């Protein structure tokens, strides 16, 4: 089996690369390294069956030979990154997704789109099931990402409807693990970084807003299972256990033995107040649910950050 992973040098993509190579597949990574790091995949460079193409998915790409599965993960993903690269984010969601879908059509490959819980925006329905259409401000600061992914979903399902391409859409909720960049602005790496340095932990708003966090190994398993089903409507993947941001900060502080205080900052515009996936569909279709608890997962990330510091 040959798999192409766009965005394979990023956080989630690079873990998928490792898993597919371990399972005996051949893997091609296409990544322009805008937010990824070569170091995430460098340990595979000498392995047979691995190829890295440093390229922007917005450019048309020719690849020789067959491909069985395309996992399209390329996209800046943290708010910090997509606000820094708004046009690149929209180009990748539109042109990049189009190019990857065309490649899937040419090769007769299955196609999986990594979409996001951000398509639900600041949700009025809680928890969020796939039937909910979302509450997104089309001209808000986060819209480059939210609307980009909504467009990418619409394009993907159009390829299924028009060409019967075997498409899969997953909506990933907050995922964390080793290889996240300490400075990527997402809450878990930020808190760990601050706690390990005993610096004040930045809490946006009152810290009462909630999130749910899925450990990378659970996410990889969910993505692998999703890539094998014949199902074309979106599938939520995430951990349904919900924490307030203050609870998360407390757990991180304890696990880091930190003396950090809290520094309260204004809530960013359109920041969702609640975020929790309804994963009934994934449970039923994929026989999947997360197994790794927050404390265990956080301990792994903290160990990894300590080695990097
Ligand atoms: P990441 O930034 O670590 O990885 C994204 C990768 O895509 C990077 O390696 C980057 O260089 C690459 N990339 C971006 N634009 C590209 C382009 N035009 N051409 C080629 N490569 C490009 O982010 P991640 O957390 O690993 O996210 C991976 C995917 O999962 C993204 O599509 C993201 O939207 C989705 N997602 C992630 C989360 C999460 O919690 N991590 C949540 C929801 C959705």
Would you write up a description of this structure?
The protein has 309 residues and is of the alpha/beta class. The chain has a domain of 213 residues: Rossmann fold. Helices cover 37% and strands 17% of the residues. The protein contains nine helices and 13 strands. The strands form four sheets. Strands 3-2-1-4-5-6-11 form a seven-stranded parallel beta sheet, sandwiched between helices. Strands 7-10 form a two-stranded parallel ribbon. Helix 1 links the parallel strand 1 and strand 2. Helix 5 crosses helix 9. The longest helix is centred in the first third of the chain and has 22 residues. The protein is globular. The termini are far apart. The site of nicotinamide-adenine-dinucleotide has 30 residues, from helix 1, helix 3 and strand 5.
Question: Mind sketching the topology for me?
Answer:
Elements: E1 2-6, H1 11-22, E2 26-30, E3 50-53, E4 69-72, H2 79-84, H3 86-107, E5 110-116, H4 143-163, E6 167-172, E7 175-176, H5 187-196, E8 201-204, E9 210-212, E10 214-215, H6 216-226, E11 235-237, E12 242-244, H7 245-255, E13 262-265, H8 280-286, H9 294-308
Parallel strand pairs: 1-2, 1-4, 2-3, 4-5, 5-6, 6-11, 7-10, 8-13
Antiparallel strand pairs: 9-12
Helix pairs in contact: 1-6, 3-4, 5-7, 5-9
This protein binds nicotinamide-adenine-dinucleotide.
């Amino acid at each position: 089996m040959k798999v192409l992973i766009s965005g394979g040098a990023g956080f989630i993509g690079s873990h998928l690369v490792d898993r597919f190579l371990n399972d005996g597949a051949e893997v091609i990574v296409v990544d322009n390294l805008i937010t990824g790091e070569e170091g995430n995949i460098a340990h595979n460079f000498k392995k047979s069956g691995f190829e890295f193409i440093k390229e922007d998915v917005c450019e048309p790409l020719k690849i020789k030979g067959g491909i069985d599965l395309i996992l399209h993960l390329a996209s800046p993903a943290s708010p910090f990154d997509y606000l820094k690269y708004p046009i690149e984010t929209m180009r990748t969601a539109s042109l990049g997704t189009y190019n990857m879908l065309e490649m899937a059509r040419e090769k007769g490959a299955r196609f999986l789109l990594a979409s996001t819980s951000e398509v639900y925006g600041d949700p009025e329905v809680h928890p969020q099931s796939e039937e909910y259409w979302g509450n997104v401000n089309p001209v808000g600061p986060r819209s480059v990402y939210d609307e980009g992914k909504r467009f990418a979903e619409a394009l993907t399902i159009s390829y299924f409807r028009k060409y019967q391409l075997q498409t899969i859409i997953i909506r990933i909720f907050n995922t964390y693990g080793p290889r996240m960049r300490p400075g990527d602005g997402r809450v878990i790496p930020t808190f760990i970084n601050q706690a390990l340095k005993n610096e004040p932990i930045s809490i946006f708003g009152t810290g009462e807003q909630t999130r749910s966090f899925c450990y990378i190994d659970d996410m990889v398993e969910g993505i692998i299972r999703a890539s094998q089903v014949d199902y074309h409507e979106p599938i939520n993947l995430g951990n349904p256990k919900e924490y307030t941001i203050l609870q998360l900060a407390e757990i991180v502080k304890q696990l880091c033995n930190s003396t950090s205080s809290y520094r309260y900052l204004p809530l960013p515009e359109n920041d969702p107040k609640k975020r929790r996936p309804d994963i009934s569909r994934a449970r039923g279709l994929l026989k999947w649910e997360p197994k790794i608890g927050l404390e265990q997962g956080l301990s792994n990330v903290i160990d990894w950050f300590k080695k990097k510091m």
